[in-house]
Amino acid sequence: MIVPTGTPDVLLRTEGRAGFITLNRPRAINALTHAMVLAVDGALTEWEHDPAVTTVVIEGAGERGLCAGGDIRAIHDDARAGGSASAAFWRDEYRLNARISRYPKPYVALMDGIVMGGGVGVSAHGSVRVVTERSRVAMPETGIGFVPDVGGTHLLGRAPGELGTHLALTGAPVGAADAILTGLADAFVPSAELPVLARDLADLPAEEALARHAVAPPAGVLAEQREWIDACYSAPTVEEIVERLFDTGVPAAKETAETLLARSPAALKATLATLRRSRALAGLEEVLDLEYRVSCAALATPDLVEGIRAQVVDKDRAPRWNPATLAEVSEADVARYFAVPEGGDLGLAAAVSETADAAGAADAAGAADAAGAADAAGTAEAAGTADAAGTADAAGTADAAGTAEAADRRARGGA
Question: Composition bias, kind Low complexity: at what positions (predicted)?
Fold first, then answer.
């Protein structure tokens, strides 16, 4: 048995060819703290440069889930105090999300049980995402007056049709089949098989290990609901989405409309705007930059504190939203979510661009060096050829002169 290292809340160990990250706050369903984010990032740094580690696996301690999200009690307290700790947490968390998406080694997320909010951020951007029959995957932010973050609008914005809009606005959890359908996961493995899968990941390439255990998931529900979801959520505003849902005559659509009316009106409108903007952006880093602005703006709204109070602190499940209705949320209210934060933008997209430019410059320099070496070699070859030709010419001239002289001598001798 290899003794785990790391911190009390993030256990690290290596077994065979794999590095394992275990989120270890089971009583809080492994909710992420800032220290945990930094610990995971540190492990990825170490293992990226360790040739003995060829696969990274992230899992959650306990039976309830991989990760229920960020520590929203801490965010609640920070927002009430007007602090900056949440913005600092998001800066490092979103950088970690981007890093996971570009990690050069297989990053396997065992998305068993509850996987929500920040839990999606540390799993669904990975290269191998495994769900089970116990998985409940969601971005439930509108229920606490917040907006999907950690790259959630990037993932949901690319789901088939308007399925992602439905999940972003309602915050509804999905099971294994629907997580795979919407692009939040890749493969289904029965939960009883996870310990064996983990052992195989220590010995085999990730795709080979997964192939031994992946099977077809139980049927989902979204594929059958796709027709009314696409028809309703393609509306230009949240108000019209709700109206269409009520008018379909489909009981599930009517229930969905009632769910939306219980969510934060401001968060609903900000979420729809963020999701649609994210679809036009090139990649995850650009979306995370956008989400960082939105998250920082949400921190200053009354609904975030009120939503967490109602759902987590007092648990009365009766939030008093402000504004109270969709009609009261103005275009100016929504626009404020996209303002540059007081502490400045996240800057992930710019950093990626600078890295790409530096790599391009290095490649160009290498190509120039190679071309220079080739030119030098060519010059040397040409000089060698010229020298050889000169030598041959000189030899030929000498031979010709020698032949002429011999003939002259013979002619004189015969005279």
Answer: 380-405
